[in-house]
Amino acid sequence: MIRAVLFDFDGVVADTFTGHFAAWRSVLPQEIELREWMVRRREGAPAFRIVQAIFADNNRPLDQESARTYVQAKNRIFRQKSTSRIYAEIPSLLDCLGDLSCRIGLVTGTSYKNLKKVVTEELFKRFHCIVTDGDTEQGKPDPAPYLCAADRLQVAPNRCLVIENAPLGIQAAKAAGMFCVALGTTLAPEELAQADVVLPAHRELLQCLPDLIAGA
User: Fold this and answer.
1) Most buried one in 51, 65, 110, 216, CB count within 10 A?
2) CA distance 60 to 196
């Protein structure tokens, strides 16, 4: 039986894509082509890796120091201008997990400052552990962030269920030995096929969560 549920943040707990994408566009050079798929398919990875990949898509190398400078500028704009919101079903999902006596974790490649811009203090308190950018040496798709959360919660990885929305996060969860449910909030179902279960969105997750906890 599942003892802990670990949530990704962007695209799972909060609808943040529009804010992140606009912030990337505002800081990247105009000659760098930026399309939504360049960000969506890499969601979950450390932000400096995402911007390096965007430059690579444009056949231009970008060193890590420069990449981190872009990330800092992008995050400042995100926090200043973002209108990101928590998905409406999240409080009900957390209530359900409380009723099922599950530990709850938040595991994300975004920064703690970005989280604080979107998540209220009340909601923060409902997570028993939070793993953000920089808490582990390696980010997604490496399993380290999810293994870190399992360790902090003192729950074996095979007793953890992960809620994800992006391929790199799914890879990280499966590499950690965890059961993974993917939500189609930002990508088509066929791009989430590595997950154990793929659901359209949060409403469907809420409906089947007790069965997933009991049967995963």
Assistant:
1) 51
2) 36
**Could you tell me if 109 and 209 lie in one domain?**
yes
- Nearest of 135, 175, 144, 179 to residue 159 by alpha carbon: 179
Describe the strand order of the beta sheet including 103-107 as a list of residue ranges.
Answer: 129-131, 103-107, 4-7, 160-164, 179-183, 197-199
Q: Are 79 and 117 in contact (CB under 8 A)?
A: yes
Q: How confident is the model at residue 107 (pLDDT cuts 50, 70, 90)?
A: very high
Asked if residue 96 and residue 26 are part of one domain, the reply reads no
Going by their DSSP bridges, the two strands 14-15 and 4-7 should be labelled as unpaired
The domain total for the chain is 2
Q: For position 27, which CATH number holds?
A: 1.10.150
Instruction: Tell me the pLDDT tens digit for each residue of 30-40.
Output: 999 999 999 99
Domain that holds residue 48: 17-81
Domain check: are 187 and 153 in the same one? yes
